[in-house]
């Protein structure tokens, strides 16, 4: 949730031209412009030949304000992790720019990139495989601090980090396999915090955890944000988690954003057929509403990102698909209402009810 602006460090010495107009707005910490990550598909034993590409992220633009939590949702394989990694330049984007506090991260040479890295950290999707099993927690935490020139002597900072994520000091001497899933995720969060970041990209921070433990880890993230003024991009496929934690939400489908709104607006009035289908699958606590509500069933599998459909990428599964435009023209993410963007040629007609879904629509009674 939004808090006061984080005290930011001086920018690396970069030309003023690298500051975009939008990020001169002091409110914006992260600005992503038309970013693409296309993984080459290679074939051949003797001659290495590129025979195609996986269009994992294919033109995403978004901005995140300081102190805000931006949730990213979408089905498995839609490109969430790839987008998160590209934002932090843990993988090289194929095209597009990422501006962090006005600095174009994609253009940075190794030393300025190293300097800026400690300000943007990632909590990885799988807590076990992202922690080196041969390193103690102390050594895991100190590794990043040393790399960024943060003093590791004395141990007080390490104790403070553990206490911030709710782990006892005795954890320092232990190894990742000695912890539960929830505790390991806390270690992952402490590792990110160790270098004093302003932005944390948390990739499915609770999806591997039991529901009761999920709430505890979410509370840790929220408390840290309140105390430190952190900015979060939280990736999750669980809509309930995203709704709870996010100020704004972006819905991804096959490498692109199809809708973006405040959490409240998205859940109250989703505009894109894909968002509607996703939300219609979330159970409602009120049994009367739950029994009478409509579920929008999507037909067909998620198409391969190596061979995405033409036009609107959702047209092969869309219950509102129209004979014109849907399979030929790719809709652009456009502001439909203040702060609410959607990429659908027929968003207005669908919202007004002028168009109704013509495919399977099942009432759950
Ligand atoms: N290094 C890579 N080389 C080739 N293809 C990749 C690579 N990394 C990811 N992909 C492909 O890119 C697409 C997007 O993957 P990504 O992991 O970003 O999705 P995701 O939304 O995070 O999925 P999940 O919810 O399962 O974590 C997938 O089709 C995946 O197979
Ligand atoms: S553009 Fe057409 S196919 Fe795509 S979501 Fe809108 S109605 Fe469906
Ligand atoms: Mg992922």
Question: What would you note in describing this structure?
Answer:
GO terms for molecular function: ATP binding; ATP hydrolysis activity. This is Oligopeptide/dipeptide ABC transporter, ATPase subunit. Residues 30-279 form the ABC transporter domain. InterPro entries: AAA+_ATPase, ABC_transp_ATP-bind, ABC_transporter-like_ATP-bd, ABC_transporter-like_CS, Oligopep_ABC_C, P-loop_NTPase. The chain has helices spanning 80-87, 110-117, 137-147, 156-164, 181-193, 211-228, 239-245, 263-268, 273-280, 287-292, 347-352; strands at 28-43, 49-65, 69-73, 95-100, 103-104, 120-123, 199-203, 231-235, 248-253, 256-262, 294-296, 334-337, 340-342, 361-363. It has 365 residues and is α/β, with parallel strands linked by helices. The model is unreliable at 1-23 and 360-365 (pLDDT under 50). It has one domain: P-loop containing nucleotide triphosphate hydrolases (Rossmann fold, 3-Layer(aba) Sandwich). The strands form 3 sheets. An 8-stranded mixed β-sheet has the order 6-7-8-3-9-10-13-12, sandwiched between helices. It has a 4-stranded antiparallel β-sheet with strand order 2-1-4-5. Strands 11-14 form a two-stranded antiparallel ribbon. Magnesium ion binds next to helix 1.
